[in-house]
Amino acid sequence: MSKTAKKEDKPAFESSLQQLEGIVRELESGEGGLEASLALFEKGVTLAQGLTQQLEEAKRKVEVLSKEQGRLSRWPFSETA
Q1: Residue 46 and which of 19, 56, 62, 72 are 20 to 30 A apart at CA?
Q2: pTM above the 0.90 mark?
Q3: What backbone phi and psi angles, to 5 degrees, belong to 64?
Q4: Where exactly are the structural domains of the chain?
Q5: 59 compared with 39, residue with greater pLDDT
């Protein structure tokens, strides 16, 4: 499977985030009925979990490169850096 096919399997982070923000606005408006609100909430939770997973994957991929004794060394991303 090519990288572009893999990329198309997952919704874009920004698109998912926009969908989640729309769901939050709709739920906060309080205009929907109970069943519609529960369905939106469930979709929002699913989107939030996917976004969290994408952020965790990105975090793992981030590496700080440093030059050590004439060669490049990889250091895991530090949240405190």
Answers
A1: 62
A2: no
A3: -95, 125
A4: 11-76
A5: 39
**Cα-atom radius of gyration of the chain, to the nearest Å?**
19
DSSP state string for 30-81: T-S-HHHHHHHHHHHHHHHHHHHHHHHHHHHH-EEEEEETTEEEEEE--TT-
Count the residues in the chain. 81
For residue 32, count other CB atoms closer than 10 A to its CB: 14
Report whether 41 contacts 30 (CB < 8 A): no
Residue (of 50, 72, 74) closest to 61 by Cα position: 74
Cα 32 to the center of its chain, rounded Å: 26
